[in-house]
Specification:
This protein is mainly alpha-helical. The protein folds into two domains: about 220 residues, no CATH class; about 200 residues, no CATH class. About 80% of the residues lie in helices and about 0% in strands. The chain is built from 17 helices and no strands. Helix 1 runs parallel beside helix 9, helix 5 packs antiparallel against helix 8 and helix 11 runs antiparallel to helix 12. The radius of gyration is 21 Å and the shape is globular. This is Multidrug-efflux transporter.
């Protein structure tokens, strides 16, 4: 057994803070679109609603196939901890090849049926037209996003979150700049493209991030991008992880589908308010993802080294940091309660609907932090089957019954976010209990 020196706060933050910055790139793409579109002079509310609907569907696709990051990170970090990372050097390229090929098939199957897909979200009339326009452009950034996510997983397995941070910052900045230029236009040079401009800006940013990811991986590591066969022996475990995470993410997105569908059925002002609230909730999730990533990265390495004492110590520290970060995010949101809403819309009805429920989003943050951090730890440990079963339980037996019941009480957005809160509790607490029961005895005996 190889013992690793004690995991300090400095060590955790060295991984967590860059991962936090890189992790918020995807929600910032959607938030930037929402903020700029929500302040257009023409059909802003309908456009904002369309961005919310499409972002929900795209998030589903990205989360389903983007699980390659966790699977690659888990396997590479475990081999790194065991001192044998060379045995999986060719795995990332093979994984990237499989996942990007699948993404091209998904574009082919969803592009022609965009209208039918968004009708399932209760979109109609102008909102449906805008949703189709926005999606049929943004979807072409999908393979580039999956490529970037897989490269990030490789870096994380190697205990490196710095390069992904630089890539994400470049992509986010590019998205903001092109959003302003293409949505509003430049007089006599570039016409205002409105919601289509926001979609093009996102695709440009995703392509840029993919190019930078390839350059950094080849320059900063000895991991090749050229696919070579036969498949690595670990490809079977990788695919099994992906299947379990795939089912898990479908369950997650069933919850998001129900929430978006109910919000859309309540009317344009409610889906617009929900779009702002849920994207801010996503931002909070991705902010805490820095510590979830540190948990993922370090737990895999510690498991590979069979260093159970430090694994328990890591979990204790992550609980403390998670609660602190969650409370801090809630406090910042409380202080900026009204200005935050005004960033995304100038429609008083939309803002009133948003302010009615934003406090629930803020109260959820410490609970979300614990759930997301231990999600990351279990992914690092490779315990994907348990994560799958837990999310199936919390979605099918907690979230859906609660949201259907609150809808019957006409609680509207309040009901949606109450359901999310109970869902997070059902996801998070069992993870902490299971972790302690599994590894505390091993730590005592090591």
């Amino acid at each position: 057994m190889s013992q690793i020196s004690s995991i300090s706060l400095k060590h955790i933050n060295k991984l967590a803070i860059p991962a936090l910055i890189s992790g918020i790139s995807e929600p910032i793409l959607s938030l930037t679109d929402a903020a700029i579109i929500g302040n257009m002079s023409l059909n802003a509310t309908e456009s904002l609603a369309a961005v919310g609907i499409v972002s929900t569907f795209l998030s589903m696709l990205i989360w389903v196939l983007g699980q390659t990051r966790s699977a690659i990170s888990s396997i590479v970090s475990q081999y790194l901890g065991a001192g044998n990372v060379g045995a999986v050097k060719n795995l990332p390229a093979q994984a990237i090849f499989l996942i990007t090929a699948l993404s091209v098939l998904i574009i082919a199957f969803t592009y022609p049926f965009a209208s039918q897909i968004f009708k399932l979200y209760n979109a109609s009339n102008v909102i449906l037209d805008y949703s189709v326009d926005y999606y049929q452009i943004r979807v072409f950034g999908f393979p580039f996003t999956l490529f970037t996510i897989a490269v990030f997983g490789t870096f994380r397995g190697l205990q490196n979150t710095y390069q992904p941070m630089l890539i994400a910052l470049a992509g986010t900045l590019a998205n903001i700049v092109f959003d302003v230029i293409l949505v509003y236009g430049i007089t006599d040079i570039i016409p205002a493209m409105h919601i289509k401009g926001a979609a093009y800006a996102s695709v440009i940013a995703q392509i840029l991030m993919a190019i930078l990811s390839a350059i950094y991986l080849l320059k900063k590591t000895d991991i090749p991008l050229l696919v070579k066969f036969p498949f690595n022996p670990e490809i079977k475990r990788f695919i099994l992880m992906i299947i379990n995470l795939f089912i898990r993410t479908i369950a997650l997105n069933v919850a998001l589908y129900f929430a978006t569908s109910f919000a859309t059925s309540y009317g344009p002002k409610y889906i617009a308010a929900y779009t702002i609230a849920i994207n801010l909730w996503f931002l909070g999730a991705f902010l805490i993802d820095g510590y979830a990533s540190a948990g993922n990265i370090l737990s895999g390495k510690l498991l590979g080294a069979k260093d159970y004492k430090n694994l328990i110590d890591l979990s204790t520290k992550l609980i403390k940091y998670g609660i602190f970060v969650g409370l801090l995010m809630a406090a910042v949101g409380g202080l900026l309660y009204f200005p935050i809403g005004q960033i995304f819309s100038n429609d008083s009805e939309v803002l009133n609907a948003f302010y009615d429920v934003f406090w629930i989003v803020l109260l959820m943050q410490p609970l979300c932090a614990l759930a997301f951090i231990f999600d990351g730890v279990f992914k690092g440990l490779g315990r994907m089957k348990y994560l799958r079963n837990l999310l199936l339980f919390s979605t099918l037996l907690v979230f859906i019954p609660v949201i259907v019941y609150t809808d019957s009480l006409d609680l509207k957005l309040h009901g949606i976010f109450i359901a999310f809160t109970l869902w997070i509790l059902a996801r998070g607490l069992p993870l902490i209990i299971k972790f302690r029961k599994t590894f505390s005895p091993l730590a005592q005996n090591s």
